[in-house]
Write a structure and sequence with these properties.
Elements (H helix, E strand, L loop, with lengths): L10 E4 L6 E7 L8 E3 L7 E3 L1 E8 L1 H7 L1 H7 L6 E4 L12 H14 L7 H10 L1 H5 L8 H17 L3 H14 L20 H21 L15 H7 L20 H12 L7 H5 L29 H9 L7 H21 L5
Parallel strand pairs: 1-5, 2-6
Antiparallel strand pairs: 2-5, 3-4
Helix pairs in contact: 1-2, 3-6, 6-7, 7-8, 8-10, 8-12
Amino acid sequence: MPPDSSSKEQQFITIHPDADLEVRLYTTKDDNANTTFKEAGKGDKMIRGRIVATLNVSRKVLIENSSTLKAMLSSSFKSRIKISSIWRTTVYALSVPEIYAVIERSHYYFFHLEKLEHWFAKWFVVNKAKIKQMGVNKITPIRGMNELELLVYPCRQFDFASGFIMITRRLAYANKGHISLYNHNPKSRHLQLSPRIVGGINGARANLAHKIHEGAWPLMSKIRGVDQMSVSEILYALLDFDYEAPDDACSYCSRDFLDDVMKVRDDVKELFGGLCLDCIKSPMRKDKAPLLYGEDRRRIWDKGCRERHSQPTWWFSWLSSDQFADVHDRERDERKRLAAEARRKKSGSGTY
């Protein structure tokens, strides 16, 4: 029997000061085919793969945060438990497909995903420069935009409002053609955006294109077809707009269209701020638009929202209003509601 050869470069991490359980994180995909380790428990079975880290954790914390592990750890399991997928919740170098693997594992083990919201927010900040470059590289634009599309779902799952509004805005302006429900990651095709959110982004993109077509120049043919352009590309191309009226032009055709085109261009460039998670989660009825006014007597469209935004964001977020995809979403939102209510009661606030 080959010796246990997985101890090389293995990390030992203490997660909880009163740890009473050892969790081994391992991968079965390793460059060295001879790497093996002994299976947890009393047996002598060897597993081909490599232990990445051993975590010293609290059995009580796992039981409180995972109904699956509660059932497992409350039975005849000994002091060791094996988990086949790597939960690298202290690492911020994960790829987008690996983020999906984290969500998948939370569904499998019924981990409370909201516990990882701060981790995802930090992951997003650490990788923000890379995210901004997605779809910019002219060599692989399709791959980059597909990866950007894939980030909308994790931002929704981890309730990360600033990332959600940033990416949905970017997709509306920079994507060539509509985005789709299709998940480009073959290992997580069942994890998909709500159709309403997809419709909201596509509706915003079509609205931007229509504003350009109606107010600046007839360019609708440029946003579809084989040679279609993104809204951002059209706005950039309008910088080269020039018009010289014919000598025998009428009074309308002899006007200077440059100012009109540049005004529309500047307006469209700032028109849509992205989709707002808070408006999506708590949509107001369309016939009861927020009749709230600020000191300057202007409408307030982002009352109670984490991200500041104007009417177009509110409108397309209303069109994207929540559809509960599965039991994980319902249970998560109910836990968060109860936790928020408990915090308000503790602070002495009487408004819920």
